[in-house]
Every structure is written in structure tokens, then in C-alpha cells.
Amino acid sequence: MRLPDLVRYAFRALTDRKLRAILTIIGVVIGPATIVALLGATQGFSSSITSELNTLGATTIVVTPAGRGATITQLTLPQIERIPNVSVVVPFYLLSGTIKVAGQTQSVQIVALNIADLRYILPGLTLQTGSTPTGDELNAADVGYYVAHPNIPGAPNISVNQVITLSIASGGGFGGFGGFGESPSSSSTRQVSFVVAGIYAEFGQSFFIDPDEGLVVPLQEGEALTQSGDYSGVMIVAKSIQAVAQVQNDVESLLGSNYRVLTVSSVVDTITSVIGSFGSLLASIGGISLIVAFTGIMTTMFTSVTERTKEIGILKALGYTGRTIMTMFLFEAIMIGLIGGVVGVSVGSIISYFLTSLFAVRGFTAAGVGRFTRAGAPGGMGSATFGGGPTTSLRVTPAITPPLILLGIGLAVGISALAGVIPAWRASRLQPAEALRSL
Predict the structure, then answer these.
(1) How far apart are CA 182 and CA 180, in angstroms?
(2) Which of 173, 318, 392, 436 would bridge 313 by S-S if both were Cys, CB 3.0 to 4.6 A apart?
(3) Does residue 258 belong to any structural domain of this protein?
(4) Torsion region of 127: left, alpha or beta (phi above 0 gives left; psi -120 to 50 gives alpha)
(5) Quick check: 199 and 148 in contact, CB under 8 A?
């Protein structure tokens, strides 16, 4: 029997029993729709986060003290510089402070480093206006775009040469740097004033520091603020992306277990692993619905064979072989799976776009890497925002790829074919005399 004839026969059999066919197809649709929607959304999140992180210092490694007695001093730097494939070593101090803007208190990040080395850490960062303070200007700072342009109704913008006053917690540390840093040892605060030397242009996301919502001051100022020669950490720039893993291993071997070594690639691997496991768990839910569809298709096909016993007897009397009869009924089951798979993939694709828009990630900043807030959720625990700038959205596009589409359709067709095998085999085994006896 030719393929066009099989298609026409299967389509006619389905249209003769429209309600049953529609209900069976709906049962098939649920499986691929669930799988495509959940896998597409989770893979989209994974790809978007990975892509975002890979553009934010892919060759940068951050090292911070993490154990009792661990310190990073000027004596530590030459040891790190001697590691092969290390391009630049940038020590830094990191503190937290608050600033009053239009009667509201805002948290800001203060980063102290050799400002000339910022070009290695954030190569695209430029000044919108003003200049970079030198090491001699200890009370001068460059401020981020959203610090200078707070997103607060009625709040004035900050201009170059303006004096701003920050409240800085005694004891210095900042616990919001990706989980690094020590908590302040005292709740007392002190007032520190800075002259705005320059204002950075809007930069966007960064992995290790947040130039849009912080202050950058010379390294010597950080030492004066913390009253310590121990750095908060050091940023190491590898010569290439391929060398990052080896440099990371060498740093860990050099410094030991009392230091935390973080790279973009390690964060990417962790995120990918977690999202992958979560996606697999969600996809298993779609697998359960496919089992339900399997049962529904088999029930429908058995009912169809029972109702069409006379038709089968006539076909056999006309010379149709058992193999041809089996192919006809099997193709009918495949047709149900094909229609259900195509509709399911389409529905799942639409749902995946809805899911990614519903759970759009906001607050994706360096200081809060790995700590996100859902779009529209109020800031609070898990919020990664600083200053008065608006939180930024991580744009997520569902990963509706050809392999995923083929997977959804293939599963639907495969399950339908398996469900139709036994009923089709039973139809092929009917004897003409027995079948015609029911006429």
C-alpha cells in the first residue's frame, strides 16, 4: 500500500471519530509541550547566564582570604606574579558605605585599586566626564553612572568637583562581593568625604566589581580607610581563556585552602550543572505525561479495532494481507502522535516564552552574582542592587532549537507507534471468516 494511501486512510479513520481523536491528540500534546516548554526555558536561562558571564572578565580570577589567619599583602603579590601565564595582578580593597540622596539612604560599593589597572579588568569602562584621580589625591573618587544619576524622584545628579559624604562601617569589610569579604566587626560608622574627580559612562554588567553603582578610589585610599596593609583580595588576569584553569590550579596550590579562588568559568560550570539537573527533573514530569498518552492511545486503538472488525473482514476478503492491515492501523497511531507532537511543540514553544518573561531575572550584578530577584519582586534578601540605579534585566530567550523540536515530535511519534503496535497486531490476526461473521 502506497504512503499517500496510508495517509488518506489514517486521516479518514480519525475524522470519522472526531471527538475521540481530538481527546487522544490532546493527551499526546501535553507531553511534548511540557518537555519543550521546560527544557527550552531552562536551557535559555543557562545559555543567557553563561553568555553574560563569559563577557564579564572571562580571563579574570579573584582571590580572597577565606580562612583563619589568611591574608593577602604586598609580599603575596610577587609570588602570584611568578606563576606562568599570569598577565596582571591587581590588589584591591573593598568596602561598603551609604550615601544620603534626597533623604534616602543608598548602599554603595567602594573599590580601592590602582585605577590604571581597571583597563585590564574592565576594558570597556570609560569616563563620561572628569578625570581619573592619581595616587596622591586620597580624597578623590570616580563614581559610577547610577551613583551620579540616582533613580530617585527629585534626587539631583552629582557633578564633577562636587563633595559627597559617605558613612562607612568601622571594621571595613564588605560581604556583598559575590559572598566574599568579612562582615564589619563593629556597628559604628564614620563619615568620609570625597571630591568627585570623574563620572563613568554607563557600563552595564560586570562580574567582579560594579562600576555603575560604586565608587573607585586609589589603592592608597583603601589602605587609609581600612587602616590595614592586608588587601581585601587580588584580581589576577590570565594571558588567555585557555590558561585560566591552569592559573587557578597554580594559585590554589601556592596559597592553600585558606583562600577562595573564583573564576567566571567555575561559576558558569556550577550554574550550568544546577540548571541542567533542574531541567532534567522538570523534563521527567513531561515523561510522565507521555506514559499517560501511551495508555490513552493504546485504549483508543483497541477500541478502534473492536469497532472496525467488519471493516477488517472486508479488507481481508478483498485480498489485504495481515501485514498491510497492521501497517494501516499502526500508521493511524503514528498520525495521532505526529499531529500531537507538532501541536505540542508549538504550544510548548509559546509557553517557554511566557515562562522566561514571567521569571525574568533582575539585579544581575557583579556584587550579587548568583543572587537574583524575580522581575517585579521588591528588593531585599537576594537583591544584588547598589546605589540608586535601576536593576537590570537579564534578557532570556528560550532555547527552542531544532534538536529540541525533533525530540518533542520524535517522542510523541515513538510513544504513539509503540502504543499502536499491539492493537495493530491484533487487527492483523483477525481471520476473514470470523470478522465477516459479525456482519
Answers:
(1) 7
(2) 436
(3) no
(4) beta
(5) yes
Closest CA to 204 of 216, 213, 191, 196: 213
C-beta separation of 334 from 376 below 8 A: no
Name the domain boundary from 190, 223, 239. Answer: 239
Q: Are residues 120 and 74 in the same domain?
A: yes
Separation between Cα atoms, residue 393 and residue 239, nearest integer Å: 31
Is the separation of the CB atoms in 41 and 321 below 8 Å?
A: no
Do residues 275 and 42 make contact, with C-beta atoms less than 8 angstroms apart? Answer: yes
In the 8-state DSSP scheme, what is residue 242?
Answer: G
Residues 89 and 230 in one domain: yes
Query: Residue 53: what pLDDT?
Result: 62
Nearest to 406 by CA among 339, 345, 322, 347: 345
Locate the DSSP E strands across 268-340: none
- The predicted-structure confidence for 3-32, as pLDDT tens digits, reads as follows 777 778 777 877 888 888 888 888 888 888
Q: Using one digit for the tens of pLDDT, what is the confidence trace for 370-379?
A: 333 333 333 3
The helix-helix angle for 18-54 and 402-429 (nearest 10°) equals 150
Same domain for 8 and 116, yes or no, is no
Partners of residue 200 on adjacent β-strands: 127
Q: For the residues of 2-32, what is the DSSP string, one character each?
A: -HHHHHHHHHHHHHHTHHHHHHHHHHHHHHH
Amino acid in position 233 = G
* Whole-number pLDDT of residue 206: 67
d(CA 439, CA 430): 14
Q: Could you tell me if 348 and 33 are in contact, meaning their C-beta atoms sit under 8 angstroms apart?
A: yes
CA distance 315 to 29: 32
Name which of 86, 110, 83 is nearest 97 in CA terms.
Answer: 110
